[in-house]
Amino acid sequence: MGLTVYLSGEIHTDWREQIIEGAQGLDVTFSAPVTDHAASDDCGVAILGAEDSKFWHDRKGAQVNAIRTRKGIADADVVVVRFGDKYKQWNAAFDAGYAAALGKSLIILQPAEHDHALKEVDAAALAVAREPGEVVEILRYVLTGTLPA
Q1: CATH number at residue 102
Q2: 16 FRET partner, CA 20 to 30 A, in 45, 77, 79, 82?
Q3: What is residue 26's three-state secondary structure?
Q4: Name one Pfam family in it (predicted).
């Protein structure tokens, strides 16, 4: 049994790389949004033309990015959503809700100080992890049935 895992959420730390590296040897395929912040912000206007208003500039980008996000979440067996410290990730909360609505197995990765603010998101998840290594161990257990050493 293999898993397809979509890695959603903050793009300012290396949590994705930690999970991908830790899962080496497991039958897991990963996908993710575009994590180049500038490319993600500007993709709509770069492809579809400039906008005078920052609102429409951002909206074009969000809509183009949503094509990739919807596909990645729809194709995933497991969706991991990371909430970091630096910014409020409204898009990550939306991704978690979308994944839950599709019945996807959802793992939330967040620091303890976010527990209250994310209580509804956490309630929809099958696991709430604190560290990327915990996500790896969940994937390992799901695929192999073995506990951490």
Answers
A1: 3.40.50.450
A2: 45
A3: coil
A4: Nuc_deoxyri_tr3
**Dihedral over Cα of 97, 10, 86, 38: its sign:** negative
Yes or no: say if 79 and 95 are a contact pair by the CB < 8 Å rule. Answer: yes
- Report pLDDT digits (tens) over 57-113: 999 999 999 999 999 999 999 999 999 987 778 899 999 999 999 999 999 999 999
Strands (E), 10-146: 28-31, 78-82, 105-109, 127-129
Report which DSSP code applies to 114. G
User: Where do we find the tokens 């999970």?
Assistant: 19
What residue numbers bound the domain in which 15 lies?
3-33+74-144
Query: How many domains does the chain divide into?
Result: 1
Work out the average pLDDT over 22-46: 97
* Separation CA 128–CA 135 (nearest Å): 9
Distance CA 63, CA 43 (A): 10
Give the pLDDT of residue 149. 85
Token look-up 């897991």 returns: 28
Cα angle 118, 123, 129; round to 5: 70
| Count of helices and strands (H, E) across the chain | 6, 5
